[in-house]
């Protein structure tokens, strides 16, 4: 007898007559019972296969429609948040593609489960025909997952290499220093009112109860250069749909463009110690003119050297463990507090 995928329904033809007494078969029709002439058994089998083909079509048809509708129509976000950077559409697209792929696989699996539950519900003690060592089926369920994984890997690698790309000349470069337990931001080469690039002109340092505010221009490429003097932290602005660890002894960088104005909260996304939960900051994205005004004001502001050291003392008294790192970071502060 020829093996074929989906041939799983029990039939008298599959069960040796000697092994199954007529009483145990119950009401199952035999060749003689069905009235089919002995010579026409092959014709009945072909008809059976045709009806199975129609059933398969009925199962696969709606799935194909679901897949087509999911890709052709306005796609939902599947719970993905709205981002505010130039990478948001790309990341949303990757998420939607992954969700649709998972949904299609889910619908197929659920469909097969419910089909098996209904079609092979217990009617007698005769087992359905068992499929083992069926080469086409085994190739199918080996190849299909490999194709899915390779596809998802390709799209993920493609988008990741795009999102982590660094340009030769970003518009703004910010040094991000995560320390126990706050953040410091240094604007490297602010570039406003300066004839030549200058380093570390403007610094913003968060203090306990007074989170740092990082002001950034809208629609300009911004490079973040991350360092840590103590333990691993993680720079995370949820609306950026991106986070990257801040690791001692290592410089991590990433670049993005914020396309929407507004104030967004930032957090440390790495459990770094006692006051990890207080490591919040704000990113304030403003139009270019407003950003230029901010930079000019800060460049022309007098350096409050005494207030910087006094604020360091107050912050370090709350956590003796943080005192060393906190002092080391704020010792270079020229315009601390925001
Ligand atoms: Cu932390």
Number of strands: 10
Look at the helices and sheets and give the structural class: alpha+beta
Total number of domains: 2
- Average per-residue pLDDT, rounded, comes to 76
Q: Helix fraction?
A: 25-40%
Radius of gyration: 33 Å
Alpha-carbon distance between the two ends: 82 Å
Q: How many individual helices?
A: 7
List the strand order in the largest sheet.
Answer: 3-2-1-5-8
Bound molecules: copper (II) ion
Shape: elongated
Q: How would you characterize the largest beta sheet?
A: 5 strands, mixed
Order of helices and strands: HHHHEEEEEEEEEEHHH
- Unreliable spans: 1-43, 192-197, 306-338
Strand content: 15-25%
Can you give a write-up of this model?
The chain has two domains: 12-163, no CATH class; 172-302 and 316-330, Immunoglobulin-like (Sandwich), CATH 2.60.40.420. Residues 1-43, 192-197 and 306-338 have low confidence and may be disordered. The protein has helices spanning 22-25, 41-72, 88-119, 135-163, 288-300, 305-318, 323-330, and strands at 172-179, 182-188, 202-205, 213-217, 221-227, 233-237, 242-246, 252-257, 262-268, 280-286. It is elongated, with a radius of gyration of 33 Å. The protein is of the alpha+beta class and 338 residues long. A five-stranded mixed beta sheet has the order 3-2-1-5-8. A five-stranded mixed beta sheet has the order 4-10-9-6-7, covered by helices on one side. A hairpin with a 2-residue loop joins strand 1 (172-179) and strand 2. The protein binds copper (II) ion (CU). Copper (II) ion (CU) binds next to loops.
